[in-house]
Amino acid sequence: MRQIVFHSFRLVLLIGVLSLGTLGASRAQVPVGEGQGTVTLEGWPRSLPALLDEMGQRAPYLLPRIDSMALDYRYAATDTSSRWSFVLSWRPAERVLYEGEVLPRREAPRDIRMTNVELRADVRVAGDKQAEMIVAVDSMALRSTPDRFVFNVTVPHDRVFLDTSPTEARRLLRRGVTLDRLVVERMGFSSAQTQRRDRSPDARRRQDEPSRPPSIYTPRTRVYVGWRVSPRPYYVGGRDENGDRKTRRPRGDTVGRTPTADADRTRDPDRGEGRQRSDGQGEGGEKESDGEEGRSGVGDVLSGKDDEDEDDDEDDTSLQTPALAAAAAVGLVAFAGGTVGLYGQGDTPIGLASGYTHPKGGIQIQAAVNSAVLEDGTDQQLSVRALGFYDVFGSRIQPAVGLGVRIDPDRGRDWEPAVSGGLVGNLGRFVLYGGVDVVQGTPEIGVAYNFRYGGNEAD
Asked: Partners of 314 in the beta sheet?
């Protein structure tokens, strides 16, 4: 009897241990953070004629202007990784760059499809930017709306955001992140037909030519250490034995494709992955809910009115004229005040500063832009502010406070306040400044020369 009781106790204890282990394993997979939303891109590129003038023969042979593009996302994070689901849709505008000409869409090749895309998005928590994220698809054939491309990925915390530790990524995902402000790093297009309206004698013959390789446009060359979502995912990092950066492609099954989708593409090559996804099949053959798409906002963003005259205001977002005006104002202040120098901060590193400097303090006008303003590209930003400093502690190191505005037309609003805090080294002829933009959380530096130092000292 005693042995029976003893063995029964051991059995109950074993069952309890196994149950606790199973509960612990299940708990590890319970989502600790989740969220969803839609991030959009509108009116890209800003100006096809300007892009053609800038790139010349290096311009892609086919690039439709994007009226609107929507990336619908949803994620669920555990302690070790996060599962992301994306829905990509796009809508063309009324102008197309084709073989060195900007044409109306009706004269451009028909059946234009997006073949690859690489996007960079700001990662925000409670409205503040915390990191950046790369979302990319290397191979697809996505027609314009209502077609859509659905893809999913599970990624560990050390690769989900750019330049972010796993601990920090887990913390951000737990608090709840939103994606904002898409920037195009790469985008490719192709067309099934190359015939234009009879603009040349051989237009009929060109209709029978084989399809050309995709036309890929890369606005800038940047190297990221992070992850990219695609049917063939990869990420860039590290260096090979020659010191060059290398690209590593992880092994295993591809993401965003299924055996069913591949079989459909074999039977009908023109159908494309975008069409397959629009039929309602997600990864692994899972049905995509039409109601979920309606709630996500992808359809709402892409169903706007047809902008026949949208190119009339293509140049509205250019900051070159305001930047030149700000530089002229800085020059006038330098002539009047006697102090001139260089200034820059995280998002707008190229700038000028000028003002008036006295041993007891002074004031500066600072204006800075990013490289996109100089290149007349996309994602232009301009920062203008006034910085004041004063000898509070009887020292050459003096506290400084700056107030101004930051202009970024590609954001949801055209401008936002800029507030700075830091220290000025008032060293006589040289004035050094170091501080932080408390709104953006980016560092600021400046160096100026006071060529009226002798006169100020006499005062």
From this structure: none
User: Which pLDDT band, with edges at 50, 70 and 90, does 201 fall under?
Assistant: very low
In whole angstroms, give the CA distance from residue 105 to residue 188: 17
How does pLDDT run across 126-150, given as a tens digit for each residue?
999 999 999 988 888 899 989 999 9
Judge whether residue 22 has pLDDT over 90: no
Mean pLDDT of the chain: 75
pLDDT of res. 376: 74
Q: Which residues contact 60 (CB under 8 A, 6 or more apart)?
A: 97, 189, 215, 216, 217
Q: Is residue 248 predicted with pLDDT exceeding 70? A: no
Q: How far is CA 308 from CA 64, 92, 311, 357, 377, in A?
A: 14, 11, 8, 54, 23
Residue 312, phi then psi, degrees to nearest 5: -65, -25
Instruction: Determine the residue type at 136.
Output: A
Could you report the per-residue pLDDT of 25-84, keeping only the tens digit for each?
A: 444 456 678 999 999 999 999 899 988 888 888 899 999 999 999 999 999 999 889 999
The pLDDT score that the predictor gives to residue 32 is 78
Determine if residue 56 is left, alpha or beta; phi over 0 gives left, psi from -120 to 50 gives alpha, anything else beta. Answer: left
3-state secondary structure the chain: CHHHHHHHHHHHHHHHHHHHHHHHHHHHCCCCEEEEEEEEEEEECCCHHHHHHHHHHHCCCEEEEEEEEEEEEEEEECCCEEEEEEEEEEEEEEEEEECCEEEEHHHCCCCEEEEEEEEEEEEEECCEEEEEEEEEECCCCECCCCCCEEEEEEEECCCCCECCCHHHHHHHHHHCCEEEEEEEEEEEEEECCCCCCCCCCCHHHHCCCCCCCCEEECCCCCCCCCCCCCCCCCEEEEECCCCCEEEECCCCCCCCCCHHHHHHHHHCHHHHHHHHHHCCECHHHCECCHHHHHHHCHHHHHCCCCCCCHHHHHHHHCCHHHHHHHHHHHHHHHHHHCEEEEEEECCCCEEEEEEEEECCEEEEEEEEECHHHHHCCCCCCEEEEEEEEECCCCCCEEEEEEEEEEECCCCCCCEEEEEEEEEEEECCCEEEEEEEECCCCEEEEEEEEECCHHHHHHC
Domain positions in the chain are: 28-308, 320-458
> What pLDDT band is residue 219 in, cutting at 50, 70 and 90?
confident
Which residues, other chains included, contact 419 with Cβ-Cβ below 8 Å and sequence gap of 6+? 401, 402, 403, 437, 438, 439
* 320-458 classified as CATH 2.40.160: yes
